[in-house]
Amino acid sequence: MGKKYLTLSQLNIEGQFLGFGSRGRDRIKCKIKYKHLYLKTSTQDLKIKIPKNLRCSLRNLLTGEQICVSVVSKLNRVNGKIKLIAYGVRSVGFCPLDYSSKENIAKIMVCQKSACLKHGGKSLLANLEKTLCDRGLLDKVKIEHTNCQKACRTAPNCILMLGGEEQYKKLEPEAIASLLQTHFFANNI
Fold first, then answer.
1. What residue range is the signal peptide (predicted)?
2. Whole-angstrom Cα distance, residue 12 to residue 69?
3. Which of 19, 20, 30, 181 could form a disulfide with 34 if both were Cys (CB 3.0 to 4.6 A apart)?
4. CA-angle at 159, arms to 157 and 165, nearest 5°
5. DSSP letter (8 states) at residue 27
């Protein structure tokens, strides 16, 4: 049997640097051990793997900075997903992020790893979508499927983020919908 990854191409991607991430979701740790960088292009947000030899040189990147990332794209033959691996990063300029539009956006991160799925993760997601749809909030909320949230004992897990600052954990769909209605009503959306 051959290799797991098939190299597709090398390309340069220009966009706005959104931040770093480590294992799992995009958790930023005190130690500089970033494994991924997030890049906003004109069409989509990308997650790009950073090899160890490149990590130290990226410490001075600022959120909002325009960068050009040289990547190798690889296809996972097992699941058909494309993985982007950086081999070079250079600064192009600076354009501050527009935080005003993001303040009122809510995001719900639902764990989709095995422990959470076994303990009702699929039904939590379905109930959440139904409740949000019933209250007319589905179009105002981004539901994200995440890797392990490191709280398997309390599965199924989801995190509600309102405006990027407030975080709520271990909520039922009805409680999430109520918090969202309060949040959107308070911000006149």
1. none
2. 6
3. 20
4. 160
5. P
